[in-house]
Design goal:
It is built from 4 helices and no strands. The protein has helices at residues 5-11, 17-44, 49-56, 60-67. It is elongated. The relative contact order is 0.11.
């Protein structure tokens, strides 16, 4: 299966539920990866956790728990 976002988005509406589920899961993983990259960029640019949290619509605690400390950013993702 390709990781092209447009292709994955189309496949989420496939008549075959397994194809749609696989595409949905792949799309979610890619979006999570993209969000992690943007959070890293924001932190490198000096933005506060509260500003980042506001931008993605979650609490400061939630974004810090997911991406701070021992989160994805410290693992180099």
């Amino acid at each position: 299966m390709t990781n092209d976002l447009a292709t994955l988005a189309r496949q989420t509406e496939d008549d075959d539920p397994l194809t749609a589920l696989r595409a949905t899961a792949a799309l979610r993983r890619e979006i999570e990866r993209m969000e992690a990259v943007q959070v890293r960029r924001a932190r490198v640019a000096g933005l506060a956790w509260s500003v980042i949290a506001d931008a993605i619509g979650v609490s400061k605690q939630a974004v810090h728990k997911k991406y701070g400390g021992r989160g994805l950013l410290s693992r180099g993702i």
